[in-house]
Amino acid sequence: MQIPFIGTWLFKNLEEILASAAISVTVLVVIINVILRYGFGFVVPWSEELSVICFVWAVYLGISSCYKHKLHMGVDVIVAMLPEKVKPAFRLCVLTLLLGLNAIMTWLSFDYLMISTKSTPVMGLSYFYINSVLLLCFGMMFLHTVRFIAREVMEMRAIRNAKA
């Protein structure tokens, strides 16, 4: 069973789309600024701020994307030593801990976002918009963890039903 809105193409690829846009803007702004600096002797004053902001967004969205695809490095030594019967329960415990961690990080990101009152020096962009990537990243990781837990529970049920 798949929840309809989770199955949409946009949700499946949201981090990748936004991260690609952010890194593309970063590269484009830096290239244009280099051409302007060395070719015409002037720079766009806000280009450095924009490229740093877009790079930060690309990094955090990349973290969430890697988490979604389970591409982060992990140490499976403990899982490998466990008996086959215990492995699914252990994975479920780890996922539950990750759910709690992602919930805490989402909450802390929200709190941090609410106290973001400063603005960038050149563009005058509020740090609220810059820091909102934290809430988006950890919120998405929380949702991915819920999905991982649901998948693990379904697999555990399938194994149990197959034995019965």
TrEMBL record:
The chain crosses the membrane at residues 17-38, 50-67, 88-108, 128-150. One of its GO terms (cellular component) is plasma membrane. It is a multi-pass membrane protein. It is found in: Cell inner membrane. One of its GO terms (molecular function) is transmembrane transporter activity. This is TRAP transporter small permease protein. InterPro entries: DctQ, TRAP_DctQ. Part of the tripartite ATP-independent periplasmic (TRAP) transport system. Pfam families: DctQ. Residues 27-153 form the Tripartite ATP-independent periplasmic transporters DctQ component domain. Its main location: membrane. The keyword DNA-binding does not apply. Belongs to the TRAP transporter small permease family. Keywords: Cell inner membrane, Cell membrane, Membrane, Transmembrane, Transmembrane helix, Transport. The complex comprises the extracytoplasmic solute receptor protein and the two transmembrane proteins.
